[in-house]
């Protein structure tokens, strides 16, 4: 960990204790730490009681073949049954599962647990009719509409692992994921709404299916299309309308129970190479982790709380904290389709006021945006229902933390800064809202049941006051089991750096009190607005453009988005200067290859890239330029003039 990153951490003296009345009613108390320390597996077995098991496990953890963990060995359950049916059977059928708030603004409806059960059963019956069996993969590419939740749960009900692809991803991203996990059905929509206007999804699916056909003919058997916007769509022979196929099914479906280790879903995330990794989560342990943390870290009181997580269903946060955790806990949630600033910049606060939201979970990038828009916007809404706020996705800077707590939380709500990853499945490091005296900017310490540490290059625990790498020392129930189809890469990526420990890829510091400050990625992975992007993946996208000879991408610090994508591009000789619109052309090309979120903030056309004598690109120097810093040590450069050329170019192009 660079000293520079460590010293960037401002000294933070502010502490926020949980209000006494909050602490007095909190779900998780300090005793949980002691209990879990004394008997970790016993603690997890107790958490597993939150679920309904068809048959119980014989062994809590089988770690005889590390790093391949098996949790709740021999146990059988059904994730959809746990999320829906059992609540209806317990008499909570009339309870609202989701206040769905769509776009346009007047398009909103409440969905009860009973209605959700009927829809999930219909969708499950429809998938059976389409030939989906336990173990088959189903890709889901949908906007934030109720059918997205229904589709996920219908797959879970059948034991058919789903892979949800964020609706903002490109046809290319969709096809590569469908091919990688071998999905035989794609569930999608004609389009979704963005700022009140219909925005098409289906053309990207058609393009993706054509690509898949070219590589593996017949892999995708059906495309099930939800009619959301009613816009014209080209139809292909694989297309079926959701309304027709799902609509004609019975709302009864008797579910099968699966082994605790049966695959639940695959979620793709960026790694250090160009190829996204298919993170595999299984059923029992994942659901235990999601339910326990959603109950404990968000202090959920299922009968009275109204919970809102603003994440899109296409990310892991949407999986664990919009679908599986809240539904397993019988929560009432808000599900929001739109964006924060349409029809106006107070829209989120209006939703909180209207539904009397009590628990709110969002990302630092959104918080910083609201800060910029000004206090008067949230001030004109009644936010007094809020009792707990959460943050996730990237380190939250202390100023944003304090603003969030004061301006949104009325200076009374605890704020939980939750650290976790797609791989971890659920929150691992966070304050406990009723226990921890929280420091703005620190995720504090591992939650009960989790053994996190910060280690040096040799894998030794660092003393308080020092920095190093964030690791997890013991397996945990919701951990990824492997990378889809690639056990070797799984071992190599997470378990080879430090013997017997899970390496998260983040740098971190333990402060004088031993509390953890997560500093960000130490690998070639960027974090833009809480979304993980790989430098290599964007480089590959740029190089696939006919005018580009070479490209290097770095993540530069950005006030709003945490990091921003900055690209340095060498054009092919035949392309000349690339033409007037070369920058726009390349930005659009990246959007087409990966998705709009990967569009570089800045592209600089350069004559050369800084390389060591062995040919490795020195990204450190490019980051210096992107962050307008004096360029650091260049002695290992093969050609010491290169940086002068690049810096001059950067000065004239910005
Ligand atoms: C990476 C994981 C977990 C869901 C959202 C992102 C960063 C996440 C925090 C936090 C500091 C954080 C880490 C991590 N990160 N939460 N509270 N403080 N950094 O999931 O795409 O898998 O990204 O996000 O760098 O490794 P993801």
Descriptive report:
The protein is of the alpha/beta class and 654 residues long. It has a domain at 529-652: ANL, C-terminal domain (GMP Synthetase, Chain A, domain 3), CATH 3.30.300.30. It contains 21 helices and 30 strands. Helix 6 crosses helix 7 and helix 11 packs across helix 12 (316-328). The longest helix is centred in the first third of the chain and has 17 residues, at 113-129. 5'-O-[(S)-butoxy(hydroxy)phosphoryl]adenosine (WT7) is lined by residues 269, 316-317, 392-395, 417-422, 443, 504-506, 518, 520-521, 527, 530, 532. 5'-O-[(S)-butoxy(hydroxy)phosphoryl]adenosine binds at residues 269, 316-317, 392-395, 417-422, 443, 504-506, 518, 520-521, 527, 530, 532. Mg(2+) binds at residues 543, 545, 548. Belongs to the ATP-dependent AMP-binding enzyme family. Its EC number is 6.2.1.1.
Helix and strand topology:
Layout: H1 3-7, H2 20-25, H3 31-38, H4 40-48, E1 59-62, E2 70-73, E3 76-77, H5 79-92, E4 96-101, E5 108-112, H6 113-129, E6 137-141, H7 146-158, E7 162-164, H8 171-181, E8 183-189, E9 191-194, E10 197-200, H9 202-215, E11 222-226, E12 239-241, H10 242-247, E13 258-259, E14 263-269, E15 277-282, H11 283-296, E16 306-309, H12 316-328, E17 332-336, H13 347-355, E18 359-362, H14 364-373, H15 376-379, E19 388-392, H16 398-408, E20 415-418, E21 452-455, E22 467-472, E23 482-483, H17 487-495, E24 502-510, E25 516-521, E26 525-528, E27 531-534, H18 535-543, E28 548-558, E29 562-571, H19 582-593, E30 602-605, H20 619-626, H21 642-653
Parallel strand pairs: 4-17, 6-7, 6-8, 8-11, 11-12, 16-17, 16-18, 18-19, 19-20, 29-30
Antiparallel strand pairs: 1-2, 3-13, 4-5, 9-10, 14-15, 15-23, 21-22, 22-24, 24-25, 26-27, 28-29
Helix pairs in contact: 3-4, 5-6, 5-7, 5-12, 6-7, 8-9, 11-12, 14-16, 20-21
Bound molecules: 5'-O-[(S)-butoxy(hydroxy)phosphoryl]adenosine.
Binding site for Mg(2+): 543, 545, 548
Binding site for ATP: 393-395, 417-422, 506, 521, 532
EC number: 6.2.1.1
């Amino acid at each position: 960990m660079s000293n520079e990153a460590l010293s960037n951490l401002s000294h933070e003296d502010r502490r926020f204790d949980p209000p006494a009345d909050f602490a007095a009613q909190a779900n998780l108390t300090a005793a949980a730490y002691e209990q879990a320390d004394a008997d970790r597996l016993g603690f997890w077995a107790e958490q597993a009681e939150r679920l309904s098991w068809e048959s119980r496990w014989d062994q809590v953890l089988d770690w005889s073949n590390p790093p391949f963990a098996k949790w709740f060995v021999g146990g059988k359950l059904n994730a959809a049954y746990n999320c829906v049916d059992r609540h209806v059977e317990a008499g909570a059928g009339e309870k609202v599962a989701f206040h769905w708030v769509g776009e346009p603004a007047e398009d909103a409806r409440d969905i009860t647990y009973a209605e959700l059960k009927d829809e999930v059963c219909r969708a499950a019956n429809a998938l059976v009719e389409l030939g989906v069996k336990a173990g088959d993969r189903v890709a889901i590419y949908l906007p934030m509409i109720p059918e997205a939740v229904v589709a996920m749960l219908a797959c879970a009900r059948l034991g058919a692992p789903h892979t949800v692809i964020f609706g903002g991803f490109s046809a290319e991203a969709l096809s590569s994921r469908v091919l990688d996990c071998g999905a035989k059905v794609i569930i999608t929509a004609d389009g979704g709404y963005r700022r009140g206007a219909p925005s098409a999804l289906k053309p990207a699916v058609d393009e993706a299916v054509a690509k898949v056909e070219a590589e593996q003919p017949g892999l995708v058997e059906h495309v099930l299309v939800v009619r959301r916007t009613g816009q014209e769509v080209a139809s292909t022979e694989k297309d079926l309308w959701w309304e027709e196929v799902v609509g004609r099914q019975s709302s009864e479906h008797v579910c099968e129970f699966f082994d605790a280790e049966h695959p639940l879903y695959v979620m793709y995330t960026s790694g250090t190479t160009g190829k996204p990794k298919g993170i595999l989560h299984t059923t029992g342990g994942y659901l235990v982790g999601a339910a326990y943390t959603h109950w404990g870290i968000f202090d959920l009181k299922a009968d009275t709380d109204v919970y809102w997580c603003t994440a899109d269903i296409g990310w892991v946060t949407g999986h664990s904290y919009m679908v599986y955790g809240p539904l397993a806990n019988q929560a009432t949630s808000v599900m929001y389709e739109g964006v924060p600033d349409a029809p106006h910049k107070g829209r989120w606060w209006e939703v909180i006021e209207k539904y009397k939201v009590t628990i709110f979970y969002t990302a630092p990038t959104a918080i910083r945006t609201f800060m910029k828009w000004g206090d008067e916007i949230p001030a004109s809404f009644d936010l007094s229902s809020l009792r707990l706020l959460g943050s996730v996705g990237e380190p939250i800077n202390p100023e944003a933390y304090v603003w969030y707590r004061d301006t949104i939380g009325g200076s009374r709500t605890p704020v939980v800064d939750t650290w976790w990853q797609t791989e971890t499945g659920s929150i691992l490091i966070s304050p406990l809202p009723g226990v921890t005296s929280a420091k703005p900017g620190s995720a504090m310490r591992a939650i009960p049941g989790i053994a996190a540490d910060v280690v040096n290059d040799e894998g030794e625990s660092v003393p308080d006051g020092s920095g190093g790498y964030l690791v997890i020392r013991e397996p945990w129930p919701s951990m990824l089991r492997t990378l889809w189809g690639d056990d070797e890469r799984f071992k190599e990526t997470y378990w080879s750096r430090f013997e017997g420990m899970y390496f998260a890829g983040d740098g971190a510091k333990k402060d004088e009190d031993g509390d953890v400050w997560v500093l960000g990625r130490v690998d070639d992975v960027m974090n833009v607005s809480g979304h993980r992007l790989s430098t290599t993946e964007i480089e590959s996208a740029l190089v696939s453009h006919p005018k580009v000879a070479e490209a290097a991408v770095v993540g530069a610090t950005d006030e709003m988005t945490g990091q921003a994508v900055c690209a340095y591009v060498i054009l092919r000789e035949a392309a000349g200067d690339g033409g007037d619109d070369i920058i726009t052309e390349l930005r659009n090309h990246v959007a087409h290859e990966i998705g709009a979120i990967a569009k570089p903030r800045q592209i600089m056309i350069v004559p050369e890239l800084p390389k060591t004598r062995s040919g490795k690109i020195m990204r450190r120097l490019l980051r210096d330029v992107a962050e307008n810093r004096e360029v650091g040590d260049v002695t290992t450069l093969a050609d010491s003039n290169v940086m002068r050329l690049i810096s001059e170019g950067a000065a004239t192009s910005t």
